[in-house]
Design goal:
It is a single chain. The protein is of the alpha/beta class and about 325 residues long. It folds into 2 domains: about 210 residues, Spore Coat Polysaccharide Biosynthesis Protein SpsA, Chain A (Alpha-Beta Complex); about 70 residues, no CATH class. Helices cover about 45% and strands about 20% of the residues. The protein is built from 13 helices and 10 strands. Strands 1, 2, 3, 4, 5, 6, 7, 8, 9 and 10 form a 10-stranded mixed beta sheet that branches. Helix 7 runs parallel beside helix 9, helix 9 packs parallel to helix 11 and helix 10 runs parallel beside helix 12. The longest helix is centred in the last third of the chain and has 27 residues.
């Protein structure tokens, strides 16, 4: 049995060494660590060359042209030869038992296409922000259950995931996936094709969250909306139809997500033309009466009141979740 770790990278010279060493120093060392350098313009290439002598299982791919996130991830995953492939972003890092624990679960449950765990959220200085804890009891989730859960969104604490290569091959890796929400798209596709997943409640990795000073994420809202629509229309709805299931839960979820996403229509960074385009993308996700009301509310400056209500609701959910989890721990 061979274990591969795929680390796509671009201009992460500050962090890539820590990511690689966190893999190499696992209690169960992988057979290969593949880093796909997507034409970085910082010192990434220099650091990778220096690491080759310290990390004999390290294999570096220097892409001749910049592929972009999706294609670089795909190239990195496809270059792996292992039966199991861990995908790790180059600014994140693992706890020492990640591979040992998740691999054992994947071996125990051969119907699982991937494994994941809870994570610790950190900032750019490695300071802990919070723990991302999934509210989930089951170690193994069957494919049909995973597909039904996907209706509510991507059910992974962070995109640090170990895949079964056979499962990735069945869904053709990242080919044809949207530029935003591609991880959600992949997980839903795996479930649609009959693959379950395994989960450890232990915190086994560290996921870096950046301060978005340039509002980059907000400016990518159109890609986010299109990505969400693609997940439902390309994967989830067809899978429900093939199984003869009712699609009412999908329609309700699309309505809820579209209504929440419509808050972008009140952001000051967009021009009127951009707001019109975004409103159209929200309606592609759901054209229900509720969605249209939310669009009107947000476009007319009343979204702050909805935001306050959501904050109270989310705070209550977090409080209840923390109480339940604390009882389980004790």
């Amino acid at each position: 049995m061979k274990i591969s770790v795929s680390i796509p990278t671009y201009n992460q010279g500050q962090y890539v060494e820590k990511a690689i060493l966190s893999v190499y120093n696992q209690t169960l060392t992988p057979d290969e660590i593949i880093v796909s350098n997507d034409c970085s313009t910082d010192n990434t290439m220099v650091i990778l060359e220096q690491l080759k002598s310290k990390v004999p299982v390290l294999k570096v791919i220097n892409q001749p042209v910049n592929l972009g996130i999706n294609k670089n991830v795909e190239a990195c995953l496809k270059a792996a030869s292992g039966e199991f492939i861990l995908r790790l972003d180059s600014d994140d890092f693992l706890e020492r038992d990640y591979i040992k624990i998740i691999l054992a679960l994947l071996e125990e449950y051969p119907e699982a296409g991937y494994g994941h765990a809870n994570v610790r959220e950190i900032d750019q200085y490695d300071h802990q922000l919070k723990n991302r804890i999934l509210f989930r009891n089951l170690t193994f989730q069957k494919a049909d259950d995973a597909l039904k859960a996907a209706v509510k969104g991507y059910r992974v604490a962070a995109n640090i995931v170990m895949f079964r290569k056979k499962a990735l091959e069945q869904v053709n890796f990242m080919l044809g996936r949207p530029n935003f929400g591609e991880d959600f798209h992949l997980a839903a596709h795996l479930a649609a094709e009959g693959w379950g997943n395994v989960f450890s409640s232990k915190i086994l990795s560290n996921y870096r969250v950046w301060v978005d000073a340039g509002m980059v994420r907000q400016k990518r809202k159109m890609s986010e909306l299109q990505g969400l629509t693609s997940v439902f229309e390309d994967v989830i709805t067809p899978a429900f139809v093939r199984r003869g299931w009712s699609t009412k839960s999908i329609e309700k979820s699309r309505e809820d997500i579209a209504s929440a996403q419509s808050d972008c229509l009140g952001w000051s960074l967009y021009s009127e033309a951009e707001i019109n385009e975004l409103a159209g993308a929200v309606l592609q996700l759901s054209s229900s009466a509720k969605t249209k009301r939310y669009i009107w509310i947000n476009r007319n400056g009343y979204g702050k009141y909805l935001k306050s209500l959501r904050s109270i609701k989310n705070g209550l959910k977090t409080f209840i979740k923390d109480k339940v989890l604390s009882r389980k721990v004790s």
